[in-house]
Amino acid sequence: MPNKKTGSIKGLMAVALLAWAPAAMAACRVSDFTSKPLASLNEVERLSFASQMTQTEYDKLHGLPPGSPNYYELIAKSAAVAGARQTARAQLADLTVENVDDYRKVWASDFLTDEELQRFTNCTSGRQPGLTVAGRSDGPGKFNVTFAHITPIGIEKITTRLVASYNIANVGELEAFLTALGPRDNYTAQTFPLQLIDPSKRAVLVLRAGWETPKFVYIPIYPTPQYFK
Predict the structure, then answer these.
(1) Tens of pLDDT, residues 87-109
(2) Where does a domain end: 111, 136, 165?
(3) Which residue from 22, 72, 83, 162 lies 20 to 30 Å from 58 (Cα-Cα)?
């Protein structure tokens, strides 16, 4: 005979996933959350942004006339979003910086304010299951990490914990912050101010929510590089 309890859980999962699916189809656009025009960003931030922009973001920015606050020649001269992303990634690869492919994930949105980054993280988290992590520099030796979590089926409470870190001075305070957050299935964006031991060196943070794959945050040396080979 069918297990009634198992059948009920499967039914809840199916309903929850169906409800979540429409949101997952839409992407969050960084340019919808920032108060800064692309023209005000440094080239590393623009390239990082372009290397992972969405199709609708490309559609929004492609074809803008020169002189517009959000005009970016790389996007304007690309025939399609795939070509723009590829060109941006290639130019970033030419930077004389190690781990640039990991850093661009941070640089793509680190020009947002904490409030803007929280809204962007909430948007992104709502469209994909698991832990979503982002962050931004807040001055010499300071990096504000922002994270949110969603379990689309909402039937299990899990704990977010620190797995490992490098060059982070206040790991004890971070662990206390996560302990206070406690076991939850979902929570909106949380921001924690990290302090680096040595601002002249990169830093790494590894977070994990329950049984999920750990999320790595590679924190680059700031300010971002202004030069190319």
Answers:
(1) 999 999 998 788 899 999 999 99
(2) 111
(3) 22
Q: Cite the DSSP H helix spans in 26-144.
A: 43-51, 55-61, 73-76, 81-93, 100-107, 114-125
Q: Is cis: bond before 223, omega within 30 of 0?
A: yes
Give 25-76 pLDDT, tens digit per residue.
Answer: 468 999 999 999 999 999 999 999 999 999 999 999 999 999 999 999 999 9
Asked if 176 and 205 sit in the same domain, the reply is yes
HSE toward the beta carbon, residue 194, CA cutoff 13 A: 29
Amino acid in position 117:
L
Which SS3 state, helix, strand or coil, does residue 63 take? coil
CA distance 31 to 141: 27
Kind of pairing, strands 203-209 and 215-219?
Answer: antiparallel
CA distance 179 to 90: 41
Which two tokens mark 225? Answer: 């590089």
Distance CA 107, CA 218 (A): 10
Q: Specify whether the CB–CB gap between 163 and 207 falls below 8 A.
A: yes
Average pLDDT value over all residues in the chain: 87
Distance of CA 49 to the CA centre of its chain: 11
Tell me if 15 is assigned to some domain.
no
The answer to whether residues 207 and 131 touch, using CB atoms and an 8 Å cutoff, is yes
Which residues lie below 8 Å from residue 59, measured CB to CB, with a gap of 6+? 81
148 plus 187 within the same structural domain: yes
